[in-house]
Design goal:
This protein is an all-beta fold. Helices cover 0% and strands 48% of the residues. This is Family 43 glycosylhydrolase.
């Protein structure tokens, strides 16, 4: 959650109104039964996300996926809350070039202290898809300038997509999916690289679709993803069949111990898919994956896309999902089966957990207005029902920005690390929100202005710089995400971090 301005500080002038303490000081007087531990998530973690890719550094996860017209990066410290991640338009191609359209399957890699995004693109004709790369020398990939380095290809200059990087025994290689002008079959190729944008020598095919499960829709091997097992051996997880069919799935290649990546004989293909459709889980066409570890490094996770309903369709897009996996005795990954959508799953180990304060005894102190005609009443803001809203009066004698507010009594002073906000569905969403707090309902202290995202049905979190003790809080909507002058919100609350 992006905080545009924070004015709160533990200074002497404010000590009479509120008290502040370090987040790490967990001497709370609030009993455990007053909170609900938020220790789970549900798939999909994002309602979109074709060809998902994740890399991580310094406690941050960087995510990207196919958006077609541009390269976009997302940053979060909680991958299970990817829908709330901060986004950044990293690079938009100029018009009228060979790489201006259909930007597919971007991947973010850090190589020799610089960041690179590999992607494929064309000029509007799929037959012209080739691989390209942009470079950023900033230590933070969400900042700095992305510079186009050029096409990444071998001398054959054939159709190529889904490029990924393998570092092995001091050498760098590129793996990708290619064919003849995009016509089937699609094979997986590998070639050596002399630097992050230059392929040297000839490409070698290390996989071609041979099994029936690789030929649904069209005979395709694509999306190669490198994974090292606990012994340090190289395996490649790839996608088989056409992405548009329900039988799209994951297969496995393995490089022989001590083998040469450029020798096709040193690669073996597993005869059965390692991850495939499961209708009862709402997982159709699971594939084109990436890998990451939990924040504490104790768990391996896969991120992949799938459709929630069968038979494709315009309103049945690919969405991003995650789940943990382990390793079999033979050194190959055990992905299990796709987890069921909407089913609570344990968050990645090491994610900082929140305890949400229960609101059954809370009350509304006051408000600027409420919509009586349509029962969009003020107390709907704390009723734990996402389908009901507080909306300021609009049917008669409307109130307008910036004169909206609502104040809440939590019935006792609580240790608070942040606020919980859920936007209403449809129009009248809030863009910026001032928050004030008080211990006596007389003297109020501003915490500053917070920015909300334009998303529905998902909790947004507004963390404070320091744990703060107060009883009352006031929400003051300052601007909206559309031209409606009377805003609304679905839910509001507070949280504290779980003690480590």
């Amino acid at each position: 959650m992006k905080k545009t301005m924070i004015k709160l500080g533990c200074v002497l002038a404010l000590l009479s109104a509120v008290s502040c303490e370090k987040i790490g000081d967990f001497n709370s007087v609030n009993p455990q039964e007053q909170v609900t531990l938020e220790d789970s998530f549900v798939n999909p973690i994002l309602p979109r996300g074709a060809d998902p890719w994740v890399t991580q550094k310094n406690g941050k996860y960087y995510f990207t996926y196919t958006q077609g017209s541009k390269l976009v990066l997302y940053e979060t410290d909680r991958i299970s809350e990817l829908a709330l991640a901060k986004s950044h338009d990293a690079w938009i191609p100029p018009s009228g070039t060979a790489y201006s359209k259909n930007l597919w399957a971007p991947e973010l890699h850090e190589i020799n202290g610089k960041w690179y995004i590999y992607f494929s693109a064309d000029n509007g004709s799929n037959a012209n898809h080739r691989m390209y790369v942009v470079e950023n020398s900033n230590v933070n990939p969400m900042e700095g300038e992305w510079v186009f380095k050029g096409k990444v290809g071998d001398s054959s200059n054939q159709w190529a997509i889904d490029g990924s990087i393998l570092h092995h025994e001091g050498e760098m290689y590129m793996l990708w999916s290619g064919g003849n002008a995009g016509a089937p079959p699609q094979n997986i190729y590998i070639a050596r690289m002399s630097d992050p944008w230059t392929i040297v020598g000839e490409k070698v095919s290390i996989a071609t679709p041979t099994y029936p499960w690789e030929k649904f829709g069209n005979p395709i091997n694509e999306g190669p993803q490198i994974l090292h097992n606990p012994a340090g051996e190289v395996v490649v997880v790839y996608s088989g069949s056409g992405y548009w069919v329900d039988n799209y799935c994951l297969g496995l290649l393995r490089l022989a111990n001590g083998g040469d990546p450029m020798n096709p004989a040193d690669w073996t293909k597993k005869s059965e898919p390692v991850f495939s459709m499961l209708a009862e889980s709402g997982a159709y066409g699971p594939g084109h994956n990436g890998f990451f570890q939990s924040p504490d490094g104790s768990e391996d996770w896969i991120i992949y896309h799938a459709r929630s309903m069968p038979n494709g369709g315009d309103n049945n897009g690919r969405n991003a999902r995650i789940q943990a996996f382990d390793w079999l005795a033979d050194g190959t990954p055990n992905f299990g089966v796709p987890t069921k959508i909407g089913q609570a799953r344990k968050r990645p180990s090491g994610e900082r957990l929140r305890e949400i304060y229960k609101k059954e005894n809370w009350s509304v102190l006051g408000y600027s207005s409420e919509e009586l005609v349509n029962t969009r009443l003020a107390d709907r803001l704390i009723d734990n029902d996402l389908s009901s809203y507080w909306i300021t009066r609009y049917s008669s004698s409307p109130t307008n920005y910036p004169d909206h507010w609502i104040s809440i009594d939590m019935q006792q002073s609580l240790d608070v690390d942040g606020f919980v906000i859920v936007q209403k569905n449809g129009d009248r969403k809030v863009k910026t929100l001032d928050i004030e707090i008080s211990t006596d309902n007389q003297s109020w202290v501003s915490l500053g202005e917070f920015e909300l995202q334009n998303i529905e049905g998902r909790t947004q979190y507004l963390p404070l710089a320091n744990r703060t003790v107060f009883r009352y809080f006031k929400l003051i909507p300052k601007s909206g995400l559309d031209n409606q002058l009377q805003p609304g919100l679905a839910e509001a609350g507070t949280f504290r971090y779980k003690a480590p």
